[in-house]
């Protein structure tokens, strides 16, 4: 079994761009290469789990998604550490076209993509994590039984500030300003075990 850090993509690793698929629109967020390197050095496998409803809506193709991931990993490999595996959900329950219109089991907050990783690597759930910038990421991580971290990049900061203001119960286990802070939190936690 592997210790895995599951990562949302848009707003967590790269700048949130509406329906991103063109390599020229990809901007890796500050501190991300260092964060990934830190996690890899600590023995974690890195797995991206990303909802890509743009495929379902016909805005871009699965080939575009794969091409972007290859391109992204080239950049990450040179600057820090690369992603071990990318999983994406190309479906949407109501806005999908053709075969992509589907109430699937992979679209977060469902856990299908986590289960694919489980089949491929085996997941040491007690020592694995989910990191994302939306509550659906946190819900997905929680549904699968992982410690889940909300990052302040993408939509996360706004969500967190709203929770602080209203005193709503936080469903995430930790809030970190960005991926580097989240990585440091994980590494510190695993050192103390
Ligand atoms: Mg996101
Ligand atoms: Zn799906």
UniProtKB/TrEMBL annotation:
Its EC number is 3.1.3.-. It is found in: Cytoplasm. It catalyses: D-glycero-alpha-D-manno-heptose 1,7-bisphosphate + H2O = D-glycero-alpha-D-manno-heptose 1-phosphate + phosphate. Pathway: Nucleotide-sugar biosynthesis; GDP-D-glycero-alpha-D-manno-heptose biosynthesis; GDP-D-glycero-alpha-D-manno-heptose from D-glycero-alpha-D-manno-heptose 7-phosphate: step 2/3. GO terms for molecular function: metal ion binding; phosphatase activity. Its main location: cytoplasm. The keyword Zinc applies. GO terms for cellular component: cytoplasm. Its cofactor is Mg(2+); Zn(2+). The active site is at residues 8, 10. InterPro entries: HAD-like_sf, HAD-SF_hydro_IIIA, HAD_sf, Heptose_bisP_phosphatase, Histidinol-phos. Keywords: Carbohydrate metabolism, Cytoplasm, Hydrolase, Magnesium, Metal-binding, Zinc. Zn(2+) binds at residues 89, 91, 104, 106. The record marks 50, 108 as: Stabilizes the phosphoryl group. Mg(2+) binds at residues 8, 10, 133-134. Substrate binds at residues 8-10, 16-19, 50-53, 107-108, 134. The record marks 107 as: Contributes to substrate recognition. The keyword Lipid biosynthesis does not apply. GO terms for biological process: carbohydrate metabolic process. Belongs to the gmhB family. This is D,D-heptose 1,7-bisphosphate phosphatase. It comes from Clostridium porci.
């Amino acid at each position: 079994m592997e210790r895995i850090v599951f990562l949302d993509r848009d707003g967590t690793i790269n700048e949130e761009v509406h329906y991103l698929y063109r390599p020229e629109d990809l901007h890796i967020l500050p501190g991300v290469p260092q964060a990934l390197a830190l996690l890899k050095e600590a023995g974690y496998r890195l797995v991206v789990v990303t909802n890509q409803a743009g495929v379902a809506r016909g805005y871009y193709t699965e080939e575009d998604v794969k091409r972007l991931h290859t391109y992204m990993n080239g950049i990450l490999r040179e600057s820090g550490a690369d992603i071990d595996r990318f999983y994406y959900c190309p479906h949407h329950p109501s806005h999908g076209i053709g075969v992509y219109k589907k109430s699937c089991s992979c679209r977060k907050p469902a856990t299908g993509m986590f289960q694919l990783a489980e089949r491929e690597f085996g997941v040491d759930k007690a020592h694995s994590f989910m990191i994302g910038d939306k509550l659906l990421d946190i819900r997905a991580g929680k549904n699968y039984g992982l410690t889940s971290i909300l990052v302040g990049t993408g939509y996360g900061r706004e969500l967190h500030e709203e929770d602080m203001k209203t005193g709503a119960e936080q469903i995430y286990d930790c809030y970190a300003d960005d991926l580097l802070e989240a990585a440091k939190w994980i590494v510190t936690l695993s050192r103390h075990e």
